Amino acid sequence: PIPSLLRLMGDSQPEGRNMKIDLSGKVALVTASTAGIGFAIAKGLAESGAEIILNGRSEQSVNAAIARLQNEVSGAKARPAIADLSGADGAAQLLRAVTGVDILVNNAGIYGPQDFYATDDATWDNYWQTNVMSGVRLSRGLLPAMVSKGWGRVVFISSESARNIPADMIHYGV
């Protein structure tokens, strides 16, 4: 998935066919952005000139991602936002820590196979809180300022599992 994402962001296009998006002066918060798809999104936004707020659950992982981003993207501006988004308290903590967000990319999510009959209510609730409510809470908290200034973007990253639910991941595909 990462090479496809990078192609979409213009990294593998023939000369002269790259899409140039100027996000200078914009601030982007990408949740779960210390690795994988989240980091690739943050990198693409940084390459377009946005200041990046990198989010993860530990100071160590976020600081390592900031160092990597600044190493890979010359002149990248990045700041940390450490918060576990699996509950309302973590989302509230993140909202208190960030300012001036113009672009919100709700990328946080968990997954894993589990037998439907063995999946208890706590597991269902954990998936719902992390994969759905984290984005809802952040959007509710950040959208009013975007609307007030007349510019903003909110993106929810999801999975094809919402439409083609694997039998062993029903709790994930909701």
Give an account of the 3D structure.
The structure is a single chain. By secondary structure, the protein is of the alpha/beta class. It contains five helices and five strands; from the N terminus they run H-E-H-E-H-E-H-E-H-E. It has helices spanning 2-8, 36-47, 59-72, 88-97, 121-149; strands at 27-30, 51-56, 78-82, 103-106, 153-156. Helix 5 (121-149) links the parallel strand 4 (103-106) and strand 5. Helix 4 runs parallel beside helix 5 (121-149). The longest helix has 29 residues, at 121-149. The protein is globular. The mean pLDDT is 91.
How would you briefly describe this protein structure?
This protein has 174 residues and is α/β, with parallel strands linked by helices. The protein is built from five helices and five strands, in the order αβαβαβαβαβ.
Please provide the count of β strands. 5
Any idea what the shape is?
Answer: globular
N-C termini distance: 21 Å
Q: Indicate the structural class.
A: alpha/beta
**Largest beta-sheet characterization:** 5 strands, parallel
- The string of secondary-structure elements, in order, is HEHEHEHEHE
* Low-pLDDT segments: none
> What is the mean pLDDT?
91
Q: What is the beta-strand fraction?
A: 5-15%
Count of alpha and pi helical runs: 5
State the helical fraction. 40-55%
Q: Measured on Cα atoms, how large is the radius of gyration?
A: 17 Å
Strand order of the largest sheet: 3-2-1-4-5
What attributes does this structure have?
174 residues, alpha/beta, five-stranded parallel beta sheet, 5 helices
